[in-house]
């Protein structure tokens, strides 16, 4: 992707650190959203993530209760994309991606790959506050079109380990390998970065008063 104009302010913030750790400024954007508008877009993105997560978790728990982890694999394969599509409204797109993918259709693009690598560094630093998720937020202008992009890390939780941990049951592992022949999403431990939600939206009428920012938060 070739960027025509771009300004990026990057910072990493921990629960124990109140100062600015890193600031990087590159170029400028002639037209972009205001910070208030950016915060609004972040809230909208987070709401879509919350709706997706709640719906998928409910489906997974019901499937596991009814037929064990075998059913959970089927839910992730067939139901999760439908839930994502339901939350891709009002110009938003929503997907999940990872450095270690299960579904090759979720391969990260260049921007997503950069953010995922940064997420790993932050998580490995041990400074992450449990109640402050790691995110990235940025405006990108390409061929005169402004895109708002947002990512939020997905930490590995207890529910994930049955299909993504290091002790996956043989029958579950066999079904995963059959469904996803190139699966790499195993051997995760509790608290690892499983991947990230990635959302974007084309901004039809960008404001004229603003700069764009990229944020990584802890």
By DSSP, the count of extended strands is: 4
Main β-sheet, in a few words?
4 strands, antiparallel
Q: Give unreliable regions as ranges.
A: 1-34, 208-214
Total helix count? Answer: 5
- Helix proportion range: 25-40%
Shape: globular
Query: How would you write the strand order of the largest sheet?
Result: 1-4-3-2
Estimated structural class:
alpha+beta
Measured by DSSP, the beta-strand proportion falls in 15-25%
Gyration radius over CA: 18 Å
What is the helix/strand order? HHEHEEHHE
From the N-terminal CA to the C-terminal CA, the straight-line distance is 28 Å
Would you mind describing this structure in some detail?
The protein has 218 residues and is of the alpha+beta class. It contains five helices and four strands, in the order H-H-E-H-E-E-H-H-E. It has helices at residues 35-67, 69-86, 110-124, 161-164, 170-179, and strands spanning 92-97, 135-142, 145-155, 193-203. A four-stranded antiparallel sheet has the order 1-4-3-2, with helices on both faces. A hairpin with a 2-residue loop joins strand 2 (135-142) and strand 3. Helix 1 packs antiparallel against helix 2 (69-86) and helix 2 (69-86) runs parallel beside helix 5. The chain is globular, with a radius of gyration of 18 Å. It starts with 34 loop residues before the first helix and ends in a 15-residue tail after the last strand. The model is unreliable at 1-34 and 208-214 (pLDDT under 50).
């Amino acid at each position: 992707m070739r960027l025509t104009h771009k300004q990026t302010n990057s910072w990493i913030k921990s629960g124990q650190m109140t100062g600015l750790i890193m600031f990087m400024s590159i170029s400028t954007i002639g037209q972009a959203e205001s910070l208030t508008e950016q915060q609004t877009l972040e809230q909208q993105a987070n709401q879509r993530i919350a709706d997706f997560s709640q719906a998928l978790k409910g489906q997974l728990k019901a499937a596991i209760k009814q037929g064990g982890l075998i059913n959970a694999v089927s839910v992730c394969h067939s139901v999760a994309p439908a839930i994502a599509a339901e939350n891709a409204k009002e110009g938003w797109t929503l997907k999940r991606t990872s450095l270690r993918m299960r579904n090759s259709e979720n391969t990260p693009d260049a921007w997503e790959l950069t953010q995922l690598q940064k997420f790993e560094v932050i998580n490995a630093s041990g400074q992450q506050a449990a109640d402050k998720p790691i995110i990235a937020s940025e405006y990108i202008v390409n061929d005169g079109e402004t895109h708002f992009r947002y990512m939020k890390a997905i930490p590995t939780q207890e529910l994930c380990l049955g299909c993504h941990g290091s002790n996956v049951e043989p029958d579950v592992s066999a079904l995963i390998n059959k469904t996803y022949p190139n699966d790499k999403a195993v051997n995760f431990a509790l608290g690892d970065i499983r991947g990230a939600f990635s959302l974007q939206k084309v901004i039809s009428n960008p404001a004229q008063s603003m700069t764009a920012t990229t944020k990584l938060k802890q």
